[in-house]
Write a structure and sequence with these properties.
The strands form 4 sheets. The protein has a 7-stranded mixed beta sheet with strand order 3-9-8-7-6-4-5, sandwiched between helices. The protein has a 4-stranded antiparallel beta sheet with strand order 12-13-16-15. β4, α5 and β5 form a beta-alpha-beta unit. It has about 425 residues and is of the alpha/beta class. It folds into 2 domains: about 140 residues, Aspartate Aminotransferase, domain 1 (Alpha-Beta Complex); about 190 residues, Type I PLP-dependent aspartate aminotransferase-like (Major domain) (Aspartate Aminotransferase, domain 2). α2 packs antiparallel against α10 and α11 runs parallel beside α14. The protein contains 14 helices and 16 strands. The termini are far apart. The chain is globular, with a radius of gyration of 22 Å. Bound molecules: pyridoxal-5'-phosphate. The site of pyridoxal-5'-phosphate (PLP) has 14 residues, from α4 and α5. It catalyses: (sulfur carrier)-H + L-cysteine = (sulfur carrier)-SH + L-alanine. Keywords: Pyridoxal phosphate, Transferase. Pfam families: Aminotran_5. This is cysteine desulfurase.
């Protein structure tokens, strides 16, 4: 049994009074808070190791321990997402870097096309858009409905035998909707297209099984999963990683660089190292290892169920309030634990709501994100105009949030709406 108030104690950041007020953190979709197990692990690296890892390089004691711990962390991530082999796990700085590597390292010709959706985060859309532009391939967009859902028949229409890549977000960071990824992968694979899934908002919150999904590439944002900032992961099927080009080159990715007759002949290492140029963030890797240990100790099924109960209270409470528009679906089914909304008002904006919550409450600071959450195309598709500063506020939940916090938030939102009439 998970004792949730003890879990919360692992996040001492929530114990402080910030300028005299209690903190309520509703911005985990942007970045999660970090449990002490993670920063204690990072401290271990800096206090006792501080050296570089990397096979066959600094083979002294500190280097060897660093390498072993970093590789152990890779094994833990492989287990976390049920990858077949740890060599399928590439360290990145964030999900964006993983998406850029995928977009630029998969071979594609101008006769082929890339399919993506209107609900993508800019990080899941722009790398593919730019690659398509460079190569001259067609860039196709499947439109999400106004409530952020997909119709599988739209994928059937857009994906054909010339589709090389299908890139899509598993859980939306604006609407929270969960895409029917398994079914989309099946459609794509019937046409031999590769599927890249953006797991930034899914993997931290529910069990992810890349083998069962049969996804070709998945990118994760480990800083949203209790991990250190500046850490992400790219998972890829090993054969595909072998086939893909390097993205960054330099030190640490090569077996040898022969110099003969005035020419160089580089020989690159196999995956995962061929994608990890230069010295790495060893402290970050170990911190990610501690983060996935932490989440797996709780159990991802437990994490998911807890968040769904919190979400139920949040969404039901918000649906009872007049004066706000919820962006995307108002249903609980197939939804990540976040709600984006804006006041129905000509006088106040989404920014006013977030400022009120952070600065104006007598005893609390409720921290949320306001803006368009890096998903402008979807905003335009539902009639909002990010160019004119229109946007929404997002309340996003994680394992350390409580029902009491949701109560405080709903009360504060009701007060805010009352004061603006
Ligand atoms: C759905 C989605 N994809 C990609 C990203 C980018 O993640 P990162 O900051 O790790 O690059 C985010 C970040 O919020 C996101 O929500």
């Amino acid at each position: 049994m998970v004792v949730w108030h003890r879990i919360r104690k692992d996040f001492p950041v929530l114990d402080q009074l910030y300028e005299g007020k209690i903190l309520i953190y509703f911005d985990s979709a942007c970045m999660s808070l970090k449990p002490k197990q993670v920063w204690e692990t990072i401290e271990y690296y800096y206090r006792y190791l501080g050296a570089c890892g990397g096979a066959g390089r600094s083979t002294h004691s500190l280097g060897t321990e660093t390498s072993l711990l970093a590789e152990e962390a890779r094994d833990k991530v492989a287990k976390f997402i049920n990858a077949k082999d740890s060599r399928e796990i590439i360290w990145t700085r964030n999900a964006t870097e993983g998406l850029n590597i995928a977009a630029n390292s998969i071979s594609i010709t101008k006769n082929q096309n890339i399919v993506t959706t209107s609900l993508e985060h800019h990080s899941g859309m722009l790398p593919f858009y730019e690659r398509a532009k460079k190569v001259g391939s067609e860039f196709r967009i499947v439109n999400a409905s106004k409530d952020g859902r997909f119709d599988l028949s739209d994928f059937e229409k857009k994906i054909d035998d010339n589709t090389r890549i299908v890139s899509l977000v598993h859980a939306s960071n604006v609407t929270g909707t969960i895409a029917p990824l398994k079914e989309i992968i099946e459609i794509a694979h019937e046409h031999n297209a590769l599927v890249i899934s953006d797991e930034a908002q899914y993997a931290p919150h529910a069990p992810l099984d890349v083998k069962k999904l049969d996804v070709d590439i998945a990118v994760l944002s480990m800083h949203k999963a209790c991990g250190p900032s500046g850490m992400g992961v790219l998972y890829g099927k090993y054969d595909l990683l072998e086939e893909m080009d390097m993205f960054f080159v330099g030190g640490d990715v090569i077996e040898d660089v022969v110099y003969k007759d005035g020419k160089i002949i580089p020989k690159y290492l196999p995956p995962p190292h061929k994608f990890e140029a230069g010295l790495q963030n060893y402290a970050g890797m170990m911190g990610v290892g501690a983060a996935v240990d932490y989440l797996m100790n709780i159990g991802m099924e437990e994490v998911h169920n807890r968040e769904q109960s919190l979400l139920r209270k949040l969404l039901r409470g918000m649906l009872d309030l007049e004066g706000i528009e919820i962006i995307g679906s108002t249903e609980l089914k197939n939804r990540a634990a976040l709600v984006s909304f804006r006041p129905k008002s000509d006088v106040v904006s989404h920014n006013d709501v977030s400022m009120y919550m952070n600065d104006m409450l007598p005893q609390h600071r409720i921290m949320m994100r306001a803006g368009n959450h890096c998903v402008h195309p979807f905003a335009y598709s539902i009639g909002m105009n990010p160019g004119k500063g229109e946007g929404s506020v997002r309340a996003s939940l994680y394992i350390y949030n409580t029902f009491d916090e949701i109560e405080v938030f709903l009360g504060a939102l009701e007060d805010f709406l009352r004061t603006i009439g």
